């Protein structure tokens, strides 16, 4: 079976795309700085792969975009019109409208920081089961780092209230995240993006209160 491939560099200069930014909140205009556009066919199947280095028009952060499609993947948009289905991948992966603590993660203890980044990657990569497991692991790591006492995670979360690390309301929310993580780990249950996003918001709030703000205050005003 005959096949062909054609590669073009910077075929469409000065293109702007609306993409979620890794630093800004929401979608922003991104300029394509460099592009490599590959077109080919394998017999009756045509395919395309576009590789782009893009720059956010706001924060000027650079990232990578890959868009691929082929003539076998298409869907109907009207009675007489069809459109090819495109797969878009962004690196680093991100969710539009979500502002994270990633730029301040250096204030976190090493193990907490490592689990936080892995969980964030799972959330941004649309891996809901892994994100749920990561949230539970992050909760457990916080308890361990704070020397919480208890024979299981339930009791350790309650001990954080005794140690005044958490408020009673905060522990109630953390218990919900513990249950969410248990469902993901033991039942392989994926939760919705909204549920996982809210859970991550709560954990990030705790990380900010327990680690980031105290470290900043100590650096600025002394112990």
**What is the average per-residue confidence, as pLDDT, rounded to a whole number?**
85
Distance between the termini: 73 Å
Look at the structure and give the CATH class of the largest domain.
Mainly Alpha
> How many structural domains?
2
Q: What is the CATH architecture annotation of the largest domain?
A: Up-down Bundle
Number of strands: 8
Outline the biggest β-sheet.
6 strands, antiparallel
Descriptive notes:
The protein has helices at residues 110-124, 128-145, 153-162, 168-187, 193-221; strands spanning 3-9, 16-20, 27-42, 45-56, 62-70, 74-76, 82-84, 87-91. The chain has 223 residues and is α+β, with helices and mostly antiparallel strands. It folds into two domains: 3-91, no CATH class; 102-221, Four Helix Bundle (Hemerythrin (Met), subunit A) (Up-down Bundle), CATH 1.20.120. The strands form two sheets. Strands 1, 2, 3, 4, 5 and 8 form a six-stranded antiparallel β-sheet that branches. Strands 6-7 form a two-stranded antiparallel ribbon. The longest helix is centred in the last third of the chain and has 29 residues, at 193-221. The radius of gyration is 22 Å and the shape is elongated. The relative contact order is 0.10. The model has no long low-confidence stretch (mean pLDDT 85).
